[in-house]
Amino acid sequence: MLLFGIDLDYLCCNKLYKEMGNIRSRILCKGKPVKQRFFQDIVSVMQNGVAIEFIYCSKDGESGYQLTAPICLYQFDGYWYLLGADDRSNVFIYALDKIETLGEEWTTFSLSDNLDYRKFTDDFFDITRVL
């Protein structure tokens, strides 16, 4: 949206990017994040260190409840993905554009301080594994 020739979406995303602080290394993209439904909400949940719950429409068209500890957000080929772990440390990949509703689950979790998110994503991310 432009106002007096200024791209307001860019300004909002730029402000959000600066506010990410200590989780900025967990947002893996080229350049600054673009406007994406639920993006800001997921970043907020990641900052709070709590799990996230949502209704997700799988590639088979089935909608179901998901509960995950958000590890990182990853941009691939123009689309955003959430990599998250369940309570048994299984890692799943969710496309942000397939999340239908979103909420916080006040179950706290912690990630290793030594986790290299870029290496983790390079090793783990496989577009064929997106649910």
Tell me the overall shape: globular
Uncertain parts: 1-12
Biggest sheet features: 6 strands, mixed
Radius of gyration: 15 Å
Explain what the structure shows:
With 131 residues, the protein is an alpha+beta fold. The protein has a single domain, classed as SH3 type barrels (Roll), CATH 2.30.30.100. Helices cover 23% and strands 38% of the residues. It has three helices and eight strands. Strand 5 and strand 6 form a beta hairpin. The chain starts with a strand and ends in a 7-residue tail after the last helix. The N terminus is likely disordered.
Helix-strand layout with pairing:
Blueprint: E1 2-3, E2 6-7, H1 8-19, E3 27-28, H2 39-48, E4 50-57, E5 63-76, E6 79-85, E7 91-95, E8 99-108, H3 117-124
Parallel strand pairs: 3-5
Antiparallel strand pairs: 1-2, 4-5, 4-8, 5-6, 6-7
A few lines on this structure:
With 131 residues, the protein is of the alpha+beta class.
Keywords for this entry:
alpha+beta, 8 strands, SH3 type barrels, two-stranded antiparallel sheet, disordered N terminus, six-stranded mixed sheet, 131 residues, globular
